[in-house]
Amino acid sequence: MALLAERDGQAQRSEPISAVAGSRPLAFGVALALLAGLPMLAAAWALLASGLVLSREMTWDFLFNLAGAWHLQSGHVAHVDFHDPVGELNFLLTVLGFRLVGPTPLAFVMGSLVWAFVTFVAASIAAQRRLPLAPAAIFTVFVCLLVVMPANVGDPPRDYSFAMSYNRYGWSALSVLALILFVPPRPPSPAVASETRGGDTLDMAVVGLVLAALFYLKITYFMAGLATLGLALFFFPHVRDRWKGWLAVGGLVVANALAPYNLPYLRDIWDAAGAGKVRGGISVHLNTFLTDPEGNAAYAAGFVVAVWLWREGRAPLRLPLAAAFLFATGVFLLTQNHQAQGVPLGVMIAFLLYDQLRQTPARMALMIFPLASIAAASFGLLEYAPNASNGERFQAVGPTNLKRLAVPIEPPGLLAAFANGRSEPALLSRARILRPHHELTPTEYVETLMEAAGLFESGGLRPGGIVVLDQVNPLPFMLGVAPPRGGALWSGWGAPARPAEEVFAEADHVLIPKFPTYSPWTETATRAYGDYLAAHFPRRTTSGSWIVLSRDSRG
């Protein structure tokens, strides 16, 4: 510990007083707001200019968000009236979008922009005390573009999906936590030394709010955030010196998480873990790590540099410890997400090294890591509006509340073949061969949904509670009717089975897809609920893509 304190002192003395962050005037904050704010305004324009929401990948996962938000819009209580291990903040943002632009897919984009603004404020507060203007602006843009980027982390930038938004929000929030907790504020000049405690209090408030948001976003990111705070309490003097305040922040956040009103949420998490949602085993983590060896090698190299600096006496032990923690935590989170690659948290190693190498003129080269992420997100955004207006590549959905969703134009596929008389078993077999993960393209999936909506809008089926035996049930949102209570929001791999008496209690119609997005679950559900459905839901009708059961055979 004495050696650690000595090296801390050397690092502090090496910083010239003219460079400290605490002596920056108000002009720094204004400049930061302009440098980081203008790119974010451009990003917002790119997403909103067309009035459409493009989806060319995992459209069912995007509709998962709209379905959850529609439950809340209908007055339902998350984890009581419907169940999912994901927190309700992700859906509340879309509900806010409903209030702003109505019940359309564009509401999701509006909610993302609201969260991007919150992230902008938190990132600016964190960066202003710790970084010079250029890297502060880069950091702020980096974490905000993580929020609004129109593709899943690790996917090609033009694979527009908006799926699993909680992952992008989580990576962004953890990056803000890492900057506050692992990069100390620069010592203030005597003229503003009295503001230090106020700045520390503001940091504590930001960390507390971010941790609370992570809890209501996704539990894995919340646990990673708590671990970040714990490491900082042990090894980082700017946190350890205010340990009472920081411990109070952590205690309040944990107390809220364990409060009685969160027990239904915790129960959903526990049920999902018991059903296999938590992925363990060293082979799982190694497979994830080796999926993107080149990208992970860059973060590993950052850790090696941190170790070298410590061994040379140019950095405290906390630097390699924090670098190892960020990399290991990022890989762990990746194994728990439906991402093939991409560890945005590893980018924070560059900011740790940047802060440590204060006397090295070439340290700006480290900003290549966040700039690469910014470039990828920017490319996707620049191409977004032109693609949305390209009528030869994308088509907008017609009626229903999906009317502002646009999916790729593609030639007739399996659905057309079925309509022309091909046998259902042959089609399903071909689907599994051609698409081992998902049997439908996004365009075909939307076609089946519009076909189902047409069964109700044509008057063939009376309105009522609708249950769909697929991964997601977006039909109530599409038709603007109240969704039934009691079921799971996401039904697929690792989703716990719920009792039939709960799932179908408010159902008037049960729709079984002939072309599901994940056939193993649909087949399992059909077998598990078969007796109950046979007793209470006689077959009403069939269509090219659906088998419809109705509680009242008269429909």
Please tell me about this protein's structure:
The chain is mostly helical and 555 residues long. It has two domains: 2-20 and 31-188 and 202-384, no CATH class; 407-550, no CATH class. Helices cover 59% and strands 5% of the residues. The protein has 24 helices and seven strands. The chain has helices at 2-13, 26-48, 59-73, 89-101, 106-128, 133-148, 165-182, 196-215, 219-235, 237-240, 243-257, 263-274, 282-291, 293-311, 318-336, 348-356, 368-388, 414-419, 424-434, 442-457, 475-479, 500-503, 519-528, 530-536, and strands at 53-54, 394-396, 405-408, 466-468, 509-513, 539-542, 546-550. The strands form two sheets. The chain has a four-stranded mixed sheet with strand order 4-5-7-6, with helices on both faces. A hairpin with an 8-residue loop joins strand 2 (394-396) and strand 3 (405-408). Helix 14 packs antiparallel against helix 15 (318-336) and helix 15 runs antiparallel to helix 16 (348-356). Mean pLDDT is 85; it is low at 1-23 and 418-438.
Structural class: mainly alpha
Q: Specify the overall morphology.
A: globular
Biggest β-sheet: strands ordered side by side in the sheet:
4-5-7-6
Main sheet summary: 4 strands, mixed
Low-confidence stretches: 1-23, 418-438
The helix fraction, in percent, is 55-70%
Strand fraction equals under 5%
Number of domains: 2
The total strand number stands at 7
Q: Calculate the mean pLDDT score and round it.
A: 85
Number of DSSP helices? 24
Rg (C-alpha, Å): 25 Å
What is this entry, summarized?
This protein is mainly α and 555 residues long. The protein contains 24 helices and seven strands.
